[in-house]
Amino acid sequence: MISKTTLFSIFAAGVSAQQVGTLTTETHPALPIQSCSAAGTCSSLSTSVTLDANWRWLHSTSSSTNCYTGNAFDATYCPDGATCASNCALDGADYPGTYGVTAAGNALTLKFVTNGPYSKNIGSRTYLMASDSKYQMFKLLNKEFSFDVDVSNLPCGLNGALYLIEMDEDGGTGRFPTNKAGAKYGTGYCDTQCPHDIKFINGEANVDGWTGSPTDVNSGTGKYGSCCHEMDLWEANSISAAYTPHVCSVDGQVRCEGTDCGDGDLRYSGICDKDGCDFNSYRMGNKTFYGPGLTVDTKKKFTVVTQFVTSTGTDSGTLSEIRRLYVQDGVVIQNSVSEIPGVTESSSISDDFCTEQKTVFNDNNQFSKLGGLAAMGGAIGRGMVLALSVWDDHSANMLWLDSTYPTTASSDTLGAARGTCATTSGDPADVEANSPDSSVIYSNIKFGAIGSTYSTTG
């Protein structure tokens, strides 16, 4: 899912680049994870996180002069995409001081608003690193992925998102030689929304047609988008949560333009499925399952487990089902079951579930048209990068996650009610002003054989 930053800095605004600057040392915060065997034995991996390039300072390769200020590229340094990539450098990050990103033990805390010495930062997006220059790649067919999360400090309008995307392991340096920064500096982002706010795509600046956002003073959109398969393991705040596979008709990261991007009225003509097939317990009819004081009590930490079941029960099988369960206070909590008339009682995502849900909710089934779970399984088998983020929504105020959406629908319209947040909530200006100290904590990340990453021992 796309998150945005607002940096008001005398040095820089959040932006991505292709050269490497030397004015701030880049040191990745350590975030060890565990790999688990079928016997339940887990071993630690020395992983870390890097900040997405869209948040970083972009400046001249020969000075500290900005290449991007406010929501515009500097015309002198960036008259076109290739020249901009040659003239401008991406620098290191002060993770806690500027971006509100802190790591301790196996926990990563992402603060929503951070007032640093030179900037005001909004949200963040980070990626898990296997080494100093390569992302950690997850191949999860016939496996499960689990993590602990604390969303107690995430109100309406915010999204603590943990998800997989089919980015290049090296951030694109191998395919695009003009990209000198690579994974170390968080380059190469893509998702199924084919976002146009990525400042550098395929080793070139997204300068052509760049237009500043009317609601975000440091964001804009260019001619090109960056597309790839996306598996939303977790999109949530303290009110609502969803997990959602999204697929594309292409594999790996691809730069799009025109119809292929699926913008606006062409939403269902593009190469990616922007809607996905979501399982949100509230939307599926159980309004007492997830939230403060409910079955999954969001006032305290809990474990989220996602299992990728194949048709053959082997790593080479076709993805047939995505299961979800929770663990809290040492108790395993099975996912809620669909209570929507016309949708078979189910607690997991399958192709049949998606077809029934789309039909009953009168939604376009682009997920099925672009290959469904088999396509999602292709990406999961090839390997995907883990993104950990917190963000607010300048497009739809996060109402698609935690309120009634579209807002013109009645709350009793099947599929419209997604949570208890008011339809007037989630405006970024309000959230940033009234909930700046919001945060999310991700910890205890594990992956391995199904049934190996969690226990009931507390």
UniProtKB/TrEMBL annotation:
Its EC number is 3.2.1.-. It comes from the Eukaryota. Residues 1-17 form the signal peptide. Keywords: Carbohydrate metabolism, Cellulose degradation, Glycosidase, Hydrolase, Polysaccharide degradation, Signal. One of its GO terms (molecular function) is cellulose 1,4-beta-cellobiosidase activity. GO terms for biological process: cellulose catabolic process. It is an enzyme of class 3 (hydrolase). Belongs to the glycosyl hydrolase 7 (cellulase C) family. This is Glucanase.
